[in-house]
Design a protein that fits this description.
By secondary structure, the chain is α/β, with parallel strands linked by helices. The chain has two domains: 205 residues, 2-enoyl-CoA Hydratase, Chain A, domain 1, CATH 3.90.226; 47 residues, Lyase 2-enoyl-coa Hydratase, Chain  A, domain 2, CATH 1.10.12. The chain is 45% helix and 14% strand. The strands form two sheets. The protein has a six-stranded mixed sheet, sandwiched between helices. The chain has a four-stranded mixed sheet with strand order 4-6-8-9. α2 links the parallel β2 and β3. α2 runs parallel beside α3 and α5 packs across α6. The termini are far apart. It binds ligand T3D. Ligand T3D binds next to α3 and β6. The site of ligand T3D has 24 residues, from α3 and β6.
Length: 276
C-alpha cells in the first residue's frame, strides 16, 4: 500500500511508546541522528516517564531505534547561533530532570543498549537500573571530543561503577568501550548477542513487572541514597525501608507462598496506609 499524502506529512514521533501487560517499552526514535536528543525527544520522554509512574506500569524498558542507542545532544541544534549557548541551562531544563526522573521512578528501568551510546546517551543508559547491551554496542564519553565535560551523571556513575582510574581515562580520552569490556568492568549487567537483545530485554522487563514492585521501589531508594550515606545512616535507612516493605501485601504474599511451597503472585500494590 502506498502511503497517503497525510501519512507522508505526519511528523515522526521522536519516541515510540509500546504498552505491554504491566510494563512499557520506550524507544528513542531519531535513527537518522543516532537518536540524539532534541527538545521534542526530551519532552516526549519526560511525559512517558511521568505516565510510567502510574500504578498500571511496573517496569520500564528504554532502547533506541536503528543502529544506535543514543548519541547524546543533537549537535545540529548547537551549530551556528550568535553567541555562546548556555549549556548549563540545557542541563538544568532537560538532562538533569531526565536522570532524576529515571532514578526516582519507583519501578525498575531496564536499558537495552542496541548500538552506540555516546555523550549524554551513554550516561542516561548508566542511570538505568539494569543495563543490557548488544555485543556490537559501544559506550563513548564523547564529550572531550567537543571540549565538554561528562554530564547526565557521568562523573557520578562512572567512578562508582568502574573506579576513578578508568573513569578519568575514559572521559579524558573519549575512548570507546565495547560491550564485552563494559561487562568485564562492571559498567553493565549483561552483554547479549545482537539478535537476541530485545527478546532478552523484554523478557527481563516482563519478569520485573511481575515482582514485588513496592519492594523494588524501596530497594531503589536505598541504592540511590547509599552513595552519599555513612554506614550508620544507611543502616537507619534500611530499617525504615524494611519497615515499609514489611507492610506491603507483596511481603505477606511472599511469606505465605513460601510456607505453602508455591510460587508467589505479587500485585505490586502499595502497603497499608498508602505508598510503601
Ligand atoms: O548541548 C547541550 O545541551 C549540553 C548537553 C550535552 C550532552 C551531550 O550529549 S554532548 C555530546 C554530544 N554527542 C556527541 O558528541 C556524539 C557525536 N556523535 C559521534 O561522535 C558519532 O556519531 C558516534 C561516535 C556516536 C557514532 O559514529 P558513527 O561513525 O557510527 O556514526 P556517524 O556517521 O558519525 O553518525 C551517523 C549519523 O548520525 C550522521 O548523520 P549523516 O551524516 O548520516 O546525516 C551524524 O551526523 C548523525 N549524528 C550522530 N551523532 C549526532 C548526530 N547528529 C546530531 N547530533 C549528534 N550528537
Amino acid at each position: 500500500m502506498t502511503p497517503s499524502s497525510a501519512d507522508a506529512e505526519r511528523p515522526v514521533d521522536p519516541l515510540l511508546v509500546t504498552r505491554h501487560d504491566g510494563w512499557v517499552e520506550l524507544t528513542l526514535n531519531r535513527p537518522g541522528r543516532l537518536n540524539a536528543f532534541n527538545e521534542d525527544l526530551h519532552r516526549a520522554l519526560a511525559d512517558a516517564l511521568d505516565e510510567a509512574a502510574g500504578e498500571a506500569c511496573r517496569a520500564v524498558l528504554l532502547t533506541g531505534a536503528g543502529r544506535g542507542f543514543c548519541a547524546g545532544q543533537d549537535l545540529a541544534a548547537r551549530a551556528g547561533g550568535s553567541g555562546p549557548p548556555d549549556l548549563g541551562a540545557s542541563l538544568e531544563a532537560h538532562y538533569n530532570p531526565l536522570v532524576r526522573r529515571i532514578r526516582a521512578l519507583r519501578k525498575p528501568v531496564v536499558c537495552a543498549v542496541n548500538g552506540v551510546a555516546a555523550g549524554a546517551g551513554a550516561n542516561i543508559a548508566l542511570a538505568c537500573d539494569i543495563v543490557l547491551a548488544a555485543r556490537s554496542a559501544t559506550f563513548i564519553q564523547s564529550f572531550a571530543r567537543i571540549g565538554l565535560v561528562p554530564d547526565s551523571g557521568g562523573t557520578f556513575f562512572l567512578p562508582r561503577l568502574i573506579g576513578d582510574a578508568r573513569a578519568r581515562a575514559l572521559a579524558m580520552l573519549a575512548a570507546p568501550v565495547d560491550a564485552e569490556t563494559a561487562l568485564n568492568w562492571g559498567l553493565i549487567w549483561e552483554a547479549v548477542d545482537d539478535a537476541g537483545l530485545m527478546d532478552r530485554a523484554r523478557a527481563l522487563a516482563a519478569d520485573l513487572a511481575a515482582r514485588p514492585t513496592q519492594g523494588l521501589a524501596l530497594m531503589k531508594e536505598a541504592f540511590n541514597a547509599s552513595a552519599a550515606n555513612s554506614l550508620d545512616a544507611q543502616l537507619d535507612l534500611e530499617r525504615d525501608l524494611q519497615r515499609a516493605a514489611g507492610r506491603t501485601p507483596d511481603y505477606r504474599e511472599g511469606v505465605r507462598a513460601f510456607i505453602e511451597k508455591r510460587a508467589p503472585c505479587f500485585t505490586g500494590r502499595p502497603g497499608d496506609g498508602g505508598t510503601a
